[in-house]
């Protein structure tokens, strides 16, 4: 739209070049939108990681779906190649999807949790409408 305006203005104002490069940058619409996206992306990645853990999808499909649902575009094959040479991952964190290893998988074997036994971990839930925590203590 900005290019159309520039082109039209250039037809009546010789000081304006229709070849001027236009760059539009802005911030996120709201922090609330980011919180809702992060919550939704986490939930969907955990669900797809469970499918991966059962051997129903492979690493490439898990990665493709994770990025797609997070609203990002990536080269899956390049990401898999980079992941193969990446340093080892730290042990699982509370609330994270379990890592599994299957024949042909590029995922590392599951690591034991560092959580002390019999301690319940309650992840913070975020209200997607307000972006505020709903169960923070």
Folded structure, characterized:
With 137 residues, the protein is mainly alpha-helical. The chain has a domain at 2-85. Mean pLDDT is 76; it is low at 101-105 and 109-119. It is elongated, with a radius of gyration of 22 Å. It is built from 4 helices and no strands. Helix content is 40%, strand content 0%.
Which structural traits does this protein have?
137 residues; mainly alpha; 4 helices; elongated
Short recap of the structure:
This protein is mainly α and 137 residues long. It contains four helices and no strands.
Q: How many helix segments?
A: 4
Compressed to H and E, one letter per element, the order equals HHHH
- State the low-pLDDT regions, or none: 101-105, 109-119
Helix content: 40-55%
End-to-end gap: 47 Å
Helix vs. strand class: mainly alpha
- What is the overall silhouette? elongated
Q: Count the E strands.
A: 0
Question: What is the subunit organization of this protein?
Answer: single chain
The proportion of residues in beta strands is under 5%
Characterize the largest beta sheet: strand count, sense, and whether it forms a barrel: none
Summed over residues and divided by their number, the pLDDT gives a mean of 76
Radius of gyration, whole Å: 22 Å
Q: How do the strands and helices of this protein lay out in sequence?
A:
Layout: H1 2-12, H2 31-53, H3 59-69, H4 76-85
